């Protein structure tokens, strides 16, 4: 926590208005808008719910294909299944490790069935080539949803990730750069869409006292208590980004003598370095390094297993260049907490060096 969260929660309790919809919801949404430059925001229970609402508002349904990054976390794509639509996965490029605009264009040029939307992920706090991707989506009439769950605070040519597409989403899950313990935010420059998403997020009640229903919705609205935490967290976002980037630089310095490749930063972009991630050379046994770290109480993980490699999606179509498979084979996420100091980073790096040698 940053400092003021407890105070804001106390204020919520003093007002005795802990129910959803309350003053802190409005404040949290307003702070996201003013920080990212998004025009409208809706605070919801989680990032996954925010993606689901975006697909629902755009009318994505069972006869639709939805394109998505294959190199991502399942939360990016599970809402496609909630809507009974069909995901089609697109591989990564090497400059940002995110969705390859060249493959995207090739697919849209040649596909028989035009997809309704694209969900592009800005992974590990690194912006995708989002301007190029946005232009392609416009050209082919494909809605663009940005999964910026991991990348709040990251920019591309000075503009925040999450604000280039028709919709953007952020997550405040426990592991993200900011957290409300659980939570999410849907943003869009289209006020009508955010209003509609708000309607679906509160059970699609028509405005009658007796709750008339023409459509069904969901119970996805964020609680005022968690929004109070979010308002406190937004006060420290810039400190968090700066600290995450510092931790990344420490890793780079500590590991400068061994042959590793850190996640690149795309020209013109400024990542939040949510997690420090790197690739080892082909002959390094990643499992052994993870075990070495684990033995000393340091948690690390392989990079996300691409969606097209998941048994769940074995029947799905994907457009591949093998980049994400190589990232998965050779990559690792390192401990990247903002409470880490230089010695913590050194300790992790000593264990990595030990793991490589053994
Ligand atoms: C965390 C995450 C999500 C889901 O967010 P929740 O708030 O946990 O539902 C979606 N996509 C990516 C890339 C994530 O890292």
Automatic annotation (TrEMBL):
In this entry, which stretches build a coiled coil?
none
Biological process terms from the Gene Ontology for this record are: polysaccharide biosynthetic process
Tell me the Pfam families matching this sequence. Answer: DegT_DnrJ_EryC1
Q: Which residues form the active site?
A: 176
Q: What molecular functions are annotated in GO for this chain?
A: pyridoxal phosphate binding; transaminase activity
Highest taxon of source: Bacteria
Q: Which residues carry this modification: N6-(pyridoxal phosphate)lysine?
A: 176
Output the Gene3D superfamilies linked to this UniProt entry.
Aspartate Aminotransferase, domain 1 (3.90.1150.10), Type I PLP-dependent aspartate aminotransferase-like (Major domain) (3.40.640.10)
Keywords on record:
Aminotransferase, Pyridoxal phosphate, Transferase
Q: Which InterPro entries match?
A: DegT/StrS_aminotransferase, PyrdxlP-dep_Trfase, PyrdxlP-dep_Trfase_major, PyrdxlP-dep_Trfase_small
Membership in a protein family: Belongs to the DegT/DnrJ/EryC1 family.
Indicate what this protein is called per its UniProt record. Answer: Aminotransferase DegT
UniProt organism field: Sulfurovum lithotrophicum
């Amino acid at each position: 926590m940053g400092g003021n969260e407890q105070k804001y929660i106390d204020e919520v309790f003093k007002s005795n208005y802990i129910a959803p919809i309350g003053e802190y919801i409005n404040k949290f949404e307003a702070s996201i808008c003013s920080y990212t430059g998004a025009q409208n925001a809706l605070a919801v229970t989680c990032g996954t719910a925010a993606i689901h609402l975006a697909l629902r508002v755009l009318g994505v349904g069972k006869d639709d294909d939805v394109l998505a990054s294959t190199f991502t976390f399942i939360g990016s794509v599970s809402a496609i299944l909630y809507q009974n639509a069909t995901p089609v996965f697109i591989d990564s490029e090497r400059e940002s490790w995110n969705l390859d605009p060249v493959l995207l264009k090739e697919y849209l040029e040649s596909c028989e069935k035009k997809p309704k939307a694209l969900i592009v992920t800005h992974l590990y706090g690194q912006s995708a080539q989002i301007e190029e991707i946005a232009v392609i989506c416009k050209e082919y009439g494909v809605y663009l949803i940005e999964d910026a769950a991991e990348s709040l605070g990251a920019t591309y040519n000075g503009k925040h990730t999450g604000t280039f597409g028709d919709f953007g989403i952020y997550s405040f899950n426990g592991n993200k750069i900011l957290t409300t313990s659980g939570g999410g935010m849907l943003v869009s420059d289209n006020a009508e869409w955010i209003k509609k998403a708000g309607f679906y997020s509160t059970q699609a009640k028509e405005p009658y006292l007796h709750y008339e229903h023409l459509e069904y919705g969901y119970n996805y609205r964020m609680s005022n208590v968690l929004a109070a935490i979010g308002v406190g967290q937004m006060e420290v976002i810039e400190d968090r980004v700066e600290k995450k980037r510092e931790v990344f630089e420490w890793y780079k310095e500590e590991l400068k003598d061994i042959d590793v490749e850190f996640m690149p930063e795309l020209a013109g972009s400024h990542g939040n370095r949510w997690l420090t991630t790197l690739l080892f050379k082909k002959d390094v046994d990643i499992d052994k390094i993870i075990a070495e770290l684990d033995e000393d109480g340091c948690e690390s993980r392989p990079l996300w297993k691409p969606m097209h490699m998941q048994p769940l999606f074995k029947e799905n179509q994907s457009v591949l260049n093998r980049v994400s498979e190589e990232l998965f084979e050779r990559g690792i996420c390192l401990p990247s907490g903002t409470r880490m100091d230089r010695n913590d980073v050194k300790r992790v790096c000593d264990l990595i060096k030990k793991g490589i040698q053994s």
